[in-house]
Design goal:
478 residues; mainly alpha; 2 domains; globular; transmembrane; cell membrane
């Protein structure tokens, strides 16, 4: 289990450093752009994220699973997946361009979105190389490149402000980042793991698409927690979209945690369950679900009490104060996502069809509720719907995994974090007028102390945490 913890630590450390940099630079954008322009920029980012869900039709998950099960065929999967992804990238970039041109957006928004289509295509071409690195569980490499991506991103945002540019300039960020990633990822994969050959086996292409059929609807339905960002400008206006964009940035900054956990555990569970190692898989899902519960409770309580203070401090303006309720609701939603991140990895690899049904129900719920309620109640209602969508996912996925695949300890891990969260919340509320830079670490210390005093963490949990941070202890990747 140590190599799992070390991989997760590598990804999270990279993203924490990235988040600090982005907090210092990204949150100058709302002050510079204003709510309306921020809403237009948020629409641009939403298009890229939503189409990134579609652009590989879920094949990346399939390829990671297959290479994890048989690493000797990495070159074969890489070469064929690259050819398929080239065509898919072109197709979805073209679809996105047609949608953008058909929409009645302001000219500056249309131009920025067309540049974003180029970024979409280029980013899709990094997926085959990342699949190989994921399957070989080389997450330190991915973590390092993610950090460099953040530096490029932050530099471009800073240049936008310094040079007094607009959202069209910002649209070139994914283009530049993707070009960098293609160069670096392809070099590392070719040198150490697999060779890309431009000879494609079309029979194998057909086989890949057959294997991938269960992943396609799951991929399409997975936009349930992003669809509101595309609908909001049409259901309300760009100003409210700007508020929601700022609030949603906290989702983006925190979603790397379940993303890191899922990325590391997916190939692990795929290989372990393929080999029938149920006891070890049960131990891992139970341990990391427990950790995620503890973290999710702390984040939710903290966001509920400090959302408005956090916005005012980071943005240096009260213009975005209306975004505070949406902020803490979205933090609560991403906390729910954290809790079911480990079982999500099992569901996708083992019960893809069932995962598709559950996610399809979630998407239908999200779409219907947004269309019915957001026009009347606004962007905060969109955040409420996102939270309930994640609760649907958590309930469905956890039930299936615990009853059909691996029965592991679950409900008993909520009580002590809730008690510790209540104690932390009372302390924060009592000292709410103090500096937020004091309240955040103090709240964390109080929460952790409460968990330790109640013996929430077992000796095995503590030993795992210690060895994960003990970098003198070398770990071999199976």
């Amino acid at each position: 289990m140590l190599h799992i913890g070390r991989n997760i630590l590598s990804l999270i450390t990279s993203r924490v450093l990235s988040a600090i940099i982005l907090l210092l630079i990204y949150f100058r954008l709302p002050e510079y752009l204003g709510a309306d322009a921020m809403g237009k920029y948020g629409l641009q980012a939403s298009y890229l994220i939503v189409f990134a869900y579609f652009v590989d039709l879920g094949m990346q998950q399939l390829v990671i699973k297959k290479i994890s099960e048989n690493k000797n065929e990495a070159s074969k999967y890489l070469s064929n997946y690259f050819g398929i992804q080239f065509l898919l990238g072109l197709a979805f970039a073209a679809i996105m361009a047609v949608i953008v041109l058909a929409a009645d957006y302001p000219p500056i928004v249309t131009k920025a979105l067309l540049v974003t289509t180029v970024g979409l295509f280029l980013s899709s071409m990094t997926m085959p190389f990342m699949s190989v690195l994921n399957a070989f569980e080389r997450f330190k490499v991915i973590a390092s490149i993610n950090f460099l991506n953040t530096m490029i991103n932050a530099s471009m945002i800073l240049l936008t402000i310094v040079l007094h540019r607009n959202i069209l300039f910002l649209a070139f960020i994914p283009v530049i980042v993707s070009l960098f990633d293609i160069a670096v990822y392809s070099y590392i994969v070719r040198k150490r793991f697999a060779h890309l050959k431009f000879k494609f086996d079309y029979d194998f292409w057909r086989q890949l698409f057959i294997w991938n059929l269960p992943f396609i609807p799951l991929t399409l339905f997975s936009i349930y927690n992003r669809v509101d960002t595309l609908l909001l400008p049409h259901l309300r206006d760009f100003t409210e979209t700007g508020f929601y964009t700022v609030a949603y940035k906290f989702w983006d900054l925190l979603a790397f945690i379940p993303g890191a956990v899922g990325a590391v555990l997916y190939p692990y569970f795929a290989s372990r369950l393929f080999m029938g190692e149920l006891t070890e898989a049960r131990r891992v899902v139970q341990t990391y679900t427990k950790f995620m519960i503890a973290l999710g409770v702390a984040l939710t309580v903290g966001a509920a009490l400090l959302a408005e203070r956090l916005l005012e401090t980071l943005l240096r303006t009260t213009e975005f104060a209306p975004a505070a309720p949406a902020l803490w609701l979205l933090v609560a939603a991403v906390s729910v996502l954290m809790v079911y991140a480990p079982v999500n990895s099992i569901m996708i690899s083992q019960r893809t069809k069932t995962a598709t049904k559950i996610t399809g129900i979630t998407l239908a719920f999200n779409l219907i509720m947004n269309i019915l309620l957001v026009p009347k109640f606004g962007f905060v209602m969109a955040a409420v719907i996102t939270l309930f969508s994640e609760l649907i996912q958590l309930t469905g996925y956890t039930y299936i995994v615990r009853t059909k695949i691996l029965n592991f300890k679950y409900f008993e891990n909520f009580l002590k974090p809730f008690i510790a969260g209540l104690i932390m919340g009372v302390a924060i509320y009592y000292f709410k007028d103090r500096s937020i830079y004091l309240l955040l670490p103090a709240g964390g210390v109080i929460y952790l102390a409460g968990l330790l005093l109640m013996r929430f963490f077992t000796k095995e949990d503590i030993d795992l945490i210690k060895t994960t941070f003990n970098f003198r202890k070398k770990v071999e990747i199976p």
